[in-house]
Amino acid sequence: MEPARELRAHAGTPYLRYAAGKAGGASVSLLAVLLTSFFLFRLIPGDPVKFMTGGRPVSSAQLAAYRREFGLDLPLWQQFTDYCGKALTGDLGTSYQFRAPVIDKITEALPNTLLLTGTAFVLYTVLGIVLGTRSAWRHGRLGDRLNTGVALTLYSIPSFWLGLLLIIVFAVGMGPVPGVFPTGGMESGGKEGFAYAVDVAHHLVLPVITLVAVEYGQTLLVTRSALLDEMGSDYLTTARAKGLRDDLVRRRHAVPNALLPTVTLVFVNLGRTVAGVILVETVFSWPGLGGLFYQALSVPDLPLVQGLFFVFASAVILMNTLADLIYPLLDPRVGR
Questions:
Q1: Most CB contacts within 10 A, which of 12, 18, 56, 298?
Q2: What span, in angstroms and rounded, lies between the C-alpha atoms of 213 and 211?
Q3: What is the distance between the alpha carbons of residues 80 and 225, in angstroms, rounded to a whole number?
Q4: Do 310 and 33 touch, CB atoms closer than 8 A?
Q5: Are 187 and 284 in contact (CB under 8 A)?
Q6: Helix-strand-coil percent breakdown of the chain, rounded to 5?
Q7: Torsion angle (degrees, nearest 10) of CA 137, 142, 147, 149
Q8: Contacts of 57 (CB under 8 A, 6+ apart)
């Protein structure tokens, strides 16, 4: 028993070193995000203190009092050290325009973003994997060419342009097509229970279609390419020689191995789900993190912009790190 335990411990050591290296890299990336988020948004033109006055004429003493209240009168290096120290404890500062903790505004908008982009994420991931698998298995046929062409076309279309087009056609109405969907927002108001859920789902349709249309193509193309690489492998030829049906060879052998690159893409997209899609949420006036970020940029509301940027980047870094940690479990050669 003792040698067996030693063998297992020795086998786990390379993976632990691999995981520690990835965790260290993620920590360095987070520190770089803190540095970038602080200095980058201070290049934005505009004086947030003047915005807080609401355009009213104020004296120099009043402006100085505002700057002192939010710490804007301190040297830049001291503002940076204060920001980093508070951020590492979960305090992202106080929003200039809302006069509320940034973390509260993020927590308030996060469920709306997860509802929109989470729904789209599930749909475009499933759609991309299914269509990518079918295209690769029928490589060169009409269906493959059609799927690939549509995916490439939609993937190259700007999401805000497609969203505006859908609003014009299906919300406002054009020609024989009536406007049957809301032009924006998350709800119409005044509804509760099941009627409220139906109303929210009605508002979800166009932004979800926009996100699915522009995002599923990437998953399709990655899945298709990975499966095409696997199709010439010897183990598939052996499986067919044993008499397995073609669909069983695809489902049991080819697809599981071909999905390894797709796993990484799924985790990257999952990180982007938390960040939301700023342009789509802005076009459809969706009250999520993306819309909040656009609103904060227009001020500029530095604490809110910095906090949102930190959350967006942290979500992507976290998901990338999780993908790196899971990948060796699917392919043991990676962690060696």
A1: 18
A2: 5
A3: 45
A4: yes
A5: no
A6: 75, 0, 25
A7: 130
A8: none
Residue with tokens 């269906």: 143
DSSP H or E run through 149:
helix 142-155
Q: Is 160 exposed, middle or buried (0-12, 13-18, 19+ CB in 10 A)?
A: middle
User: Quick one: 80 exposed, middle or buried, by C-beta within 10 A (0-12, 13-18, 19+)?
Assistant: middle
CA distance 93 to 82: 10
Entry field: residues in the chain: 336
d(CA 63, CA 183): 40
DSSP 125: H
Q: Position of tokens 């046929």?
A: 141
Query: ω before 300 within 30° of 0 (cis)?
Result: yes
User: Could you give the CA distance from residue 24 to residue 16 in angstroms, rounded to a whole number?
Assistant: 12
- The Cα–Cα gap between 198 and 187 comes to 9
Q: What is the pTM of this model?
A: 0.80
- The strand pair at 173-174 and 177-178 is best described as antiparallel
Which tens digit of pLDDT belongs to each residue from 282-334? 889 899 888 888 888 877 788 898 888 888 888 888 888 888 888 777 666 56
Pick from 212, 117, 206: which is nearest to 155 by CA?
212
Cross-strand partners of 178: 173
Q: Which of 143, 122, 140, 141 is nearest to 131 (CA)?
A: 143
